[in-house]
Amino acid sequence: MRAYHHDGDNTADQRLPHEYTPFSPVTPEELGRLGVLYWRIEKRDDWLEQINAVAQERSYRNRDVIKVSKEAMGDVYESKLKTFYEEHLHEDEEIRYILDGSGYFDVRDEQDRWIRIALTTGDLLVLPAGIYHRFTLDSNNYIEAMRLFKDEPKWTPINRPADSNPFRLSYLQSVRTTV
Ligand code: KMT
Ligand code: NI
Fold this sequence. Notes:
Blueprint: E1 2-5, H1 28-33, E2 37-40, H2 47-57, E3 62-68, H3 70-73, H4 77-85, E4 88-89, E5 94-108, E6 114-120, E7 123-127, E8 133-137, E9 143-149, E10 158-159, H5 166-178
The structure holds 4-(methylsulfanyl)-2-oxobutanoic acid and nickel (II) ion.
C-alpha cells in the first residue's frame, strides 16, 4: 500500500500514478482519521486464516471474488470501469483484499482533496460507509480482489452529490468526533 496526495489532474489518463509534486505521502494514521483502515496480509500459506480472523472480528460474514480485466469482463469491462471511477459513496463499508494485480482507490480527505491509495497483492483496505471515493485500474490493467461484506452485498454506488444521505451525515460526524 502506498498512499499520497493526487495531483488533481483529471485530463490525463486515470491509470497513471497522478502523484502530486512534490510527492506528498499520506500515512496509515492519516487514513485512519478518515475512517479508512488498512492491513497487510502476505499471500503466504496462512493468508486465508488471517482474512478469516479479520472477518470474524469485524463481522464480515459474506464474500466473493471479482476479477477486473478485459478478459474476465468482456463486454461490460469499459462500462464497469467507468462506474467504478465515478465519485460515489456506499451505505456500507467497502472491503477489498487484493489477491492479484494492482489498482488505485481514491478517497476524499477533510479538505475534499483526493488521496490516492495504491494497492497490490496482500493489501486489505476498508473504506467506511459514507466516504466519497472511486476506483481505477493502473497501467497493468488487472486486479483480482476478494470483496467482503457484513450481510448481503450492498454495492449500489450513490454518486456524488449525496450530501444529505444519512450515511454521509453520520460519516462526517464520526470523522469530526475522532479528530
Ligand atoms: C469497486 O467497488 O469499486 C470495486 O469493486 C472495484 C474493483 S475491486 C478492486
Ligand atoms: Ni465504491
